[in-house]
Amino acid sequence: MDKILIVDDNTAVLEALSLLLEIHGYAVATAKTPFEAQQIVNYQRIALVIQDMNFSTDTTSGEEGKALFYALRKLNPNLPIILITAWTELESAIELVKAGAADYLAKPWDDHKLLTSIANLVALGKAQTASETLSRQELERQDSRVQAKKTGLIYASQAMQRLVDMALQVAKSDISVLITGPNGSGKEKIAELIQANSHLANQPFIKVNAGALPAELIEAELFGAEAGAFTGATKARVGRFEAANGGTLFLDEMGNLPLSGQTKLLRVLQTGEFERLGSVNTHKTKVRVISATNANLLEDIQQGRFREDLYYRLNVIELHLPALSQRIDDILPLVGHFLPNRVLSREAELKLCHYSWPGNVRELENACKRVAVLKPEGILEADDFALQSLQRESPAAVVTSLEPNKAELETAMRDYQGVIAKVARHFGMTRQALYRRLQKFGIDY
């Protein structure tokens, strides 16, 4: 319920206006002095102010009202203020209207005119607030896209936007992050995004792919080894935790870490202490850990393959990266990134979007590299990508599967503030096709 503040030293005026506004569905706050009015505006959510021009006995200059007006505007520059004036204060009221007052009414006021003015101003205030919120959100989205692009993260889908927003928020803290998602979906890019936007951005960022190392070498890789600790160890070796001291360690494919390595990892996360293989000397390190996995660690815990206490140490915040097939809006922007300045036929666009991409972004990148070599010029067709399992539905069927529904259209129209060009680009549609879709669902544009 919108709350209106009435400021007047006359009790009868306060009671009359309060009754009028409450009857018409407004909440009311009252103040008899400028000080009380400023306190209310400072600590309560006020939609509109109705204020007198004088508050002291035998004062008619309107100077008190002017002072209050400017004080309220300083507290809230967008607050609508209606002035209630006597004819002797008309000149001052007009001066304040030029300075930004919403309206002025002479005493005795006209109830209908006052209510109409209030309704219009409250509605306008809500619209401005909504517009400012959308503008702020759009600026935040643009900023997050810029930050993501710096790390090579290309996307257009709302699912990825939400993930990037959360990653940027998580980046500000030192907590451990677990990034989950299928192979090739871009988990390392999310880790790079977090690191680049953290206060550790200028500190070491060390990456370890546990899935690419033999089990017997993983511990040496993480914690280091003394000469002679194992066959082939001819000299002392610094581990990744030691190298990352003061910075960030990215542990990819965590599900492949053997139980002995998990125990040591848990210890270093809890205490910051570890020993190199073949040594009894304890080393100290302070490292932020970002880990990633394509495995179902909860299932691994049930099967005794992964320590539950380590899981909860690593998974303070989980960021889940969906498969590329679940974020179709990202496919064409990625193709444009991997194949800059190349033109795809409409059929190629549709079929690439309809393909399941079991290898995710990595498969898409490889397909684009292959096309760039085999067909360096000309318009690219679907067959040029040589995807053996590419579905062969008719273009019409594919178009139907990709066309946005009413809810998606309404969300996009809000997100892009009704800018048709941006909404059309978001869905990969022509403006004419978008107009037809909007008309079909009765969405006002």
Automatic annotation (TrEMBL):
Location of 4-aspartylphosphate modifications: D52
Domain Sigma-54 factor interaction: 153-373
InterPro entries named in the record: AAA+_ATPase, AAA_lid_NorR, CheY-like_superfamily, Homeodomain-like_sf, HTH_Fis, P-loop_NTPase, Sig_transdc_resp-reg_receiver, Sigma_54_int
Response regulatory domain segment(s): 3-122
Keywords: ATP-binding, DNA-binding, Nucleotide-binding, Phosphoprotein, Transcription, Transcription regulation
Protein name, entry field: Sigma-54-dependent transcriptional regulator
